[in-house]
Structure formats: structure tokens, C-alpha cells
Amino acid sequence: MSKDYKQMWSDLEINLDAHDGLLGVLSDAYTNIYLSQKNRPEGMKYFDFVISEVHGLRIEEIVEAKKQGRKVIGTFCVYVPEELILAVDGVCIGLCAGADVGTDEAEKYIPRNTCALIKAFMGFKLAGLCPYVQTADLIVGETTCDGKKKAYELFDEMMNGKVYVMEIPNKKGQDDKALWLNEVQRFSAKLEEISGKKITPEKLKEASKVVNEKRKALQRLASLRSADPSPISGLDALLVNQVAFYDDPLRFTAKVNELCDELTERVKTGKGVSAKGSPRILISGSPMAIPNWKIHAIVEGSGATIVGEESCVGERNFASLMDENFSSLNEGLRNIADRYLTINCACFTPNDERLTDIETIAKRVKADGILHYAIQFCTPYMIEATKVKKVAEKIKMPLLRIETDYSMEDMGQLKTRIEAFLEMMGKGARV
Amino acid sequence: MRIGGIDIGSRYIKYVLLEDNSILDFKKRETGHNPLSVCKELLTVNRPEKIVATGYGRYLLEVFGDIRTITEIKAVAKGVKAVFPRCRTIIDIGGQDTKVISLSGQGSVVNFEMNDRCAAGTGRFIEIMSRALGYDLDHFGASCNSRNGNVKINSMCTVFAESEVISLIAKGEKREVIAYSIHDSIASKVISMVKRIDIQDDIVFAGGCARNPCLRRILEERLQKTLYVHENPYIHAAYGAALYAEI
Fold first, then answer.
1. Which residues of A touch B97 (CB under 8 A)?
2. Do A423 and B109 touch (CB under 8 A)?
3. pLDDT at residue number A30
4. Closest Cβ–Cβ partner in B69, B71, B117 for A410
5. Which residues of B touch A (CB under 8 A)?
6. What are the structural domains of chain A?
7. B219-243 pLDDT, tens per residue?
8. A68 class by beta-carbon count within 10 Å (0-12 exposed, 13-18 middle, 19+ buried)
9. Alpha carbons within 13 A on the beta-carbon side of A228
10. Rounded distance, CA A338 to CA A181, Å?
């Protein structure tokens, strides 16, 4: 990190000693996993910088934005409409939930067999290790799964009443659409109330454009990964998708597009991160919040390349755009509601659209195999894996089911399973 | 030409030396706390020209330079197929992993299931339980009595199952009966894995646990299938690795 942020962290009530430890571990992991990769695009330098300043410069920017009266809205789910947050000049941040941090603290409140993501968001707060959550004026929860919705009740107490929960329907019928539209309207009113700013159709249009441009840049990155060899590693692409949740959206979009320009050149000259014809894997399943790089590191360390993520940190975040064509606020809110209900999360029943998505993406990225990833105890994805298996059989694609958490204890077993999977695909592993 | 295969497992290191396709030597040593020194010791005698490493510790041999590695799944498939040409399914219960592997007619791996991190349903579980009941591991499987008791071990977690066993002992339950129920609970775990695979005959039971007659019998009864067991079920992965060394 370029400068000393101790005073800022201290003002945000961060546990300084433990935080130094966390940054040390993160920096080592980043060096080992990311900086050791070969043939990285130049454009990744920006993202390396962002990570090196993940709790520094970006926090400073956010603190500065707060001084100018902007509100910071923390989220944990791609269902929370970013457009509305930007329409009140808010700063939208996807909160820390991807590391085995503060687990002991979290387990005082929630059962041990709770998924790692929930334990992590509580753990980060309880251990005083997440400066983002400390800057938040509002934290938006959602009823995507039982674990999260019950945990938000406890989290609200820890956050002194700053948690606001949006109800996500369980189905996608007419009643559900009406419910969701109401939720979007209520959320927009809540944002107006805490920011003291009015959402006008013009403001919403402007915000929609910003978010759509970000999605388009991420779509562009995703489509470049269809090339063989892929011009970018799965690890790097995952990182870009993770950074999408907390970087400044305009700057982020510009940087992703710069990266994509470089990748386009690479594709033209056939330059890639691995040899042409090396095994290509599509990840499908639970989200991988930063700094969860575990599966990508094992797969790519075994000689395969990850070419897509059918995940909330991935395709589900950017696959569909919002219709920017509206003339009244109500119409705009309806467009938002419609757009977000196209996200096919396993918390819906039935969720056949996700199966179609997997098939489409697997073909588009020319995958040789699918790795279904579920965070341990993430029941919706763990169960839906059975249906995904059927889709894989239908399109004659091998599928490996992995259930794991953020700890490193099962690395040996995972490595064996993943390598055996690659061997089985006949493209060989690290041989 | 002498070629070798070494299978560095969680409990034992197995080593096979081949000359002109016949087995010249087989050795099995406890993995212990310093597996690399065990490997070095094994490899200094009759050092083969080519060697392939497999098993949990397969990357340990990187210090020797260019030693090829394959997973134990690929290795065991090759090793079993060479001995049992009609094999289409392998149930391999080793020290810390249980695998169910489905083979094509030609012998390549078409599907597999493997336990996740926990030790329930693995050799380690049997070891811990035999100790809790005061049995010598080699006699544990022969000491089961199924029919005069109705005891069930419900817990799938090794730690919790051990406390269940201890409370059954405290209740005065016969240890032969408890021993049977332990084997039955392991079989349940293995069968849930088998159910996820489209199993076909012949089925070969491999790995150290295949020597346990009680486990074999329960699996056969519950699957309604015959399980074939080699006289040395430890050998398959190391043998398979050795066969890959000549390719």
C-alpha cells in the first residue's frame, strides 16, 4: 500500500492488529496465486493495483464521498438494484464475504453448519476487519436463502439498525412479479429518504446507463474468453468480476474496456494464457466473493483454463441489461423489476431458466467440462446440482460436483478430484 | 527395462517394481510423518528407469526431478483393469478417501465419486473405531456379530460416532454387535456414493479396507452384487502407476 492509512482505519473502528494480519495474508495469497501467473495481460496491472489498495485508496475515496454528502450502500446480492443507488448519488459496495475471517466470532451467533459466506460477512463485522461495512449508511439484505434472511436479523442488531431487507420472491409468476415491483418501489423510497434526494426519470436514466455500460464491458470480457486459447486466465477474469462490486463504476468500465482492447489483439494473434486445445472448464454454482480464489487456483494450477462463471460473481451479474427506454419514473422502476427477475438464482422454484443458461454458456465458451461449485451448506445450489448434472448429461459434457468452504484443509482432496476429472476428460492434467 | 509405480497414500506408501511386465517387487510402508524419506528408502533399492507417482503425496517426489504424476483414480483404474479385465466398477476404500469409479469397457474412467473432506466411511474411521473397541485392526472385520443386536450408529462424523460407540460400550452393549453396526454405518456412507454412479458388473473392491470381510459382506448384501477382491488389495494404484510408466 502506498501510504499509511492507520488513522483512517482507526477512525472506522478497525481492529488494527488483526487487520494488519489479514492484509499480510491477503498480500501473500495474491502474490502466490495471481502474480505468479504467466502471460498475464498488461491491463491486469490496474486490477493488481486495486487489490493492493483494497482497504486503502478505495476506502479513502469512499470516506471522501461521504464527506460530500453521498451515502454508502452495502449489498450482498446481485438482486439489489444498483441503478437506484446511483440515482441518489450513492456509492454501491458489495461487502466482504469471501474469506475465513472471524469465524469463531460468527459461530457465537449462528450454527457451525451455516455456509461460509454468511459466516464471513458476520465474521468480518464482528472481528472489525471490513472497512467497507464500517462506512456503510445502509446495508441491504435480501431473502434469497433461509440462512441469509435469518442472519440479517442478527446482523441488524450488530449494525445498530442499518440493515434493510428486500423480499425476493420464491417463484416468478404474476403475483411474484407484483411483489417484486413493490419491493423495488419501496427500496427507491427508502433510498430517497436516507439520501434526501429525489429519484427523477433523468437521474434514473443516467444511472441505468452507467450500470448497463459496466455490464456491457463485462459481457465483452466474457465473450473474449470464448477464444481458444483464452486470452485471459479464469483467475484474472474472476478478479475483474469481483472488483466489479466495489470499484467506482465509471472508472471500472473504462479499465475493463481497455483490458478487452488488449485481449482482442491477443485473440487476433492467437496469443493466450495456455496452449491451444488445453482443457476448458465452466464454473457453475454459488458465488465466489473476493478473495475466494480457491477453485480457480486449483483448476488452473492443474493445467486447465476456466472460461466462464455461471455465478452471481460472473454471468448472473451482467448477462441481462436494463431497458433504458422509459419516460416516467414508474416505467423505469418497472424496467428495473423486470430486469432483475431475469437473474436465475437457485433460491427460485422452479429454476429451469438457470439450466438453459448453463447449456447456452457452456456452448458459447466451448467448455470441455462443467465444475459445479456449491459452498458447503448452501442447500439451494447443492440440491440443484442434481438437475445441472442432467443438463450436462444431455449435452454430453462431463460434470464434477464440488462442495467446499473457504478453508484450505481439503486442498489435497480437491486437487485429486479436479485432476482426476481433467484426466477423465482425456485432456490430461499436469502430466 | 525396470519401471516402477509409487502410491503415496495417507496411511501407507505402496511401491511396485516391474520388469518386462511382471512384478519384481512390492513393498508397503507406513507413510508416517516423513513420507519423503520413506520414498527415498524404497527407491534406492532397485531404482527403476522410469517411475510414475500417484496418491495423496504424489507431488512429494518433485525433488527427484522429472517424475510424472497421475491421480490415484486414474492409477487404480489401470491397475485393477489389468488384473480384472471384466471390471466396470471399482469401490476403493483407502485411508482417508473413498472412491467409486466407473470404467468404460476399454477401461478408461467415465465417472467417479469421492468423499469430501470428512473421514467418515474411510479406512481411518475403521481404524479409530477398532481402537475404541479394543480390537486389533486386522481382526476387527472378523469380529462382527450382526444378528443378535439391533444397534445403529447414526452419526456420520468420526468424532461423534466415536462418542456414540463409547456410550454404547457404557450401556453394556456387546462389542461384537457394536463392531457390526460400525461396519454397517460405513457401508451406508459408501453406498450413498455408489448410488450416484451407474454401477455395472464386475465390481472390484480395492484398497486396504477390502481386506475387511465384514465390510465386504455387508456391501455385497446391500448391493446384491458380488465384489471381487485381489489377494493384495493395496497394490492396485501403485501397479497402475507402474503400468503408466512404460507409456
1. 413, 416
2. yes
3. 96
4. B117
5. 56, 68-74, 96-97, 108-112, 114-117
6. 6-204 (3.40.50.11890), 226-321+345-425 (3.40.50.11900)
7. 999 999 999 999 999 999 999 999 9
8. exposed
9. 12
10. 8
**So what's the ipTM on this one?**
0.86
Q: How many residues does chain B have?
A: 247
For residue B246, the SS3 value is coil
Give the integer Cα–Cα distance in Å for B169 and B126. Answer: 17
Interface touch B97/A410, C-beta < 8 Å: no
Residue in B65, B18, B54, B62 with CA at minimum distance from that of residue B36: B62
Query: Chain B within 8 Å of A204 (Cβ-Cβ)?
Result: no
Domains parsed from chain B with CATH numbers? 1-84+232-247 (3.30.420.40), 86-229 (3.30.420.40)
CB contact under 8 A, B116 and A413: yes
pLDDT in tens, chain B (247 residues): 899 999 999 889 999 999 988 998 999 999 999 999 999 888 887 788 899 999 999 998 888 877 899 999 999 999 999 999 999 999 999 888 899 999 999 999 999 999 876 666 788 888 888 888 888 888 888 888 776 567 777 766 766 778 888 888 888 888 888 889 889 888 988 998 898 888 899 999 999 999 999 999 999 999 999 999 999 999 999 999 999 998 7
Asked if A61 reaches chain B (Cβ–Cβ under 8 Å), the answer is no
Judging contacts by C-beta atoms under 8 Å, the chain A residues touching residue B106 are: none
- DSSP secondary structure letter of residue B147: T
Neighboring chain A residues of B157 at a CB cutoff of 8 Å: none
Cα–Cα distance for residue pair B39/B32, rounded to 1 Å: 11
Nearest to A77 by CA among A7, A1, A147, A8: A147
In SS3 terms, chain A reads as CCCCCHHHHHHCCCCHHHHHHHHHHHHHHHHHHHHCCCCCCCCHHHHHHHHHCCCCHHHHHHHHHHHCCCCEEEECCCCCCHHHHHHCCCEEEECCCCCCCCHHHHCCCCCCCCCHHHHHHHHHHHCCCCHHHHHCCEEEEECCCHHHHHHHHHHHHHCCCCEEEECCCCCCCHHHHHHHHHHHHHHHHHHHHHHCCCCCHHHHHHHHHHHHHHHHHHHHHHHHCCCCCCCCCHHHHHHHHHHCCCCCHHHHHHHHHHHHHHHHHHHHHCCCCCCCCCCEEEEEECCCCCCCCHHHHHHHHCCCEEEEEECCCCHHHHCCCCCCCCCCHHHHHHHHHHHHCCCCCCCCCCCHHHHHHHHHHHHHCCCCEEEEEEECCCHHHHHHHHHHHHHHHHCCCCEEEEEECCCCCCHHHHHHHHHHHHHHCCCCCCC
Give the integer Cα–Cα distance in Å for B93 and B83. 18
A176-221 pLDDT tens trace: 999 999 999 999 999 999 999 999 999 999 999 999 999 999 999 9
Contacting residues for A349 by C-beta, under 8 A, at least 6 apart: A170, A171
Contacts of B73 in chain A (CB under 8 A): 416, 420, 423-424
CB atoms < 10 A from the CB of A328, how many? 10
Q: Show residues of chain A in contact with B117, CB under 8 Å.
A: 404, 409-410, 413
